[in-house]
Amino acid sequence: MNVFVTGATGWIGSSTVDELLGAGHRVVGLARSDASAASLEAKGAAVLRGDLDDLDSLRRGAAEAEAVVHLANKHDWANPEETDRAERAAVETLAEALVGTGRPFVVANGISGLVEGRAVLETDPSPAVGPDSDRGGAENLALDYVGRGVRTIITRFAPTVHGTGDWGFINFLMSAAHKQGVSGYIGDGSHAWSAVHRSDAARLIRLGLEKAPAGSRLHAIAEKAITTRTIAEAIGRALDIPVVSIAPEDANTHFGFVSSFFELSMTGSSERTRELLAWTPAGPTLIDDIIAGAYKEARQQ
Question: Which residues form the NAD-dependent epimerase/dehydratase domain (predicted)?
Answer without folding.
Answer: 3-212
